[in-house]
């Protein structure tokens, strides 16, 4: 377009020169062409000057009020930022524009729309790729660190002594401590059977030679073993055995100490802090985020994600209350983002424009509107020529 506008201007200059010669040498009628070309040349040159003065100094001459855009780029950046703030990034404007937007309905139609296998596969692969890319970003690593710090804070704030007391209290109230005691008794009986040779050897070692000579050591060992087996059997078969009651009383005392005894509470707290400081626990906490990242990608790759999306879309289509709630939540979220970060966004626009050099902003604006500006030059040339013919006709009618 620049070549066309400039070429038309050159053509008008050439025709003006020819028409001026032809009027005197050939025919007076060429005065009409002369009037058209003269006015067209003036109009074209005036518009060329105006268009050029927006972006640079015409012919490189430092004429006042030229190269307007490069000189005013900071003001343009501020004006653009103000325009965006007042017309797009104001919470009231955004809320008003979102009143009729059915975000839930759009999401529901997208989730329930039929799609062939190839399209569904492309969508799933895109989601998986997006999830993996997001999982590898610095923001994801920062989120993992926040997760770890949050877990550690929750563990440090946990009342472990109170939790243990409540757990034991519930177990005792429901009688779930008796199977544990029965298991311990059964373990004691098995251990006694397994260690019988060692016990007999211990009795023999502590018996003098005379008693061993008459085999009294073996009878002593038999009596000891039989007494221990009988004692364990009595405890196991008698629900009201004193040992059981003492064990229950010991549990009650432990529960009380876990709730009220500062020394016991301090010991449990020390155990908890030692557990948190254990490197194995730290590695386990770090592994939570890694498992979550891999689990998300695995979920998207499986059929479960497709079923979940379809079910969510169907729920959005059938439940007006759910759609209303989601639309309200979406509007509040978007308005909240604009309220909290709108100034930062428009400041980014302003700072970006201010950071451009004169050549950059000139090139960008010329690329955006340069074609229309060349049309202005064409129109100026043609309209100027038409006005020149009209003025010539008026002067001829007036007898000038």
Order of helices and strands: HHHHHHHHHHHHHHHHHHH
Principal-axes geometry comes out as rod-shaped
Distance between the termini: 39 Å
- Gyration radius, rounded: 46 Å
Question: Helical residue percent?
Answer: over 70%
Computed structural class:
mainly alpha
Mean pLDDT: 75
Low-pLDDT segments, ≥5 res = 209-214
According to DSSP, the number of beta strands is 0
Major sheet:
none
Output the number of helix runs: 19
Summarize the structure.
The protein is mainly alpha-helical and 400 residues long. The chain has helices spanning 2-25, 30-55, 68-71, 73-87, 91-97, 103-112, 117-135, 138-156, 160-173, 178-194, 196-205, 209-213, 216-237, 242-260, 262-277, 279-301, 303-318, 320-355, 358-397.
Task: Explain this structure.
α1 (2-25) runs antiparallel to α2 and α6 (103-112) crosses α17. This protein has helices at 2-25, 30-55, 68-71, 73-87, 91-97, 103-112, 117-135, 138-156, 160-173, 178-194, 196-205, 209-213, 216-237, 242-260, 262-277, 279-301, 303-318, 320-355, 358-397. The protein starts with a helix and ends with a helix. It has 19 helices and no strands. By secondary structure, it is an all-alpha fold.
Describe the secondary-structure layout.
Elements: H1 2-25, H2 30-55, H3 68-71, H4 73-87, H5 91-97, H6 103-112, H7 117-135, H8 138-156, H9 160-173, H10 178-194, H11 196-205, H12 209-213, H13 216-237, H14 242-260, H15 262-277, H16 279-301, H17 303-318, H18 320-355, H19 358-397
Fill in the keyword field for this structure.
single chain, 400 residues, mainly alpha, 19 helices, 86% helix, 0% strand, rod-shaped
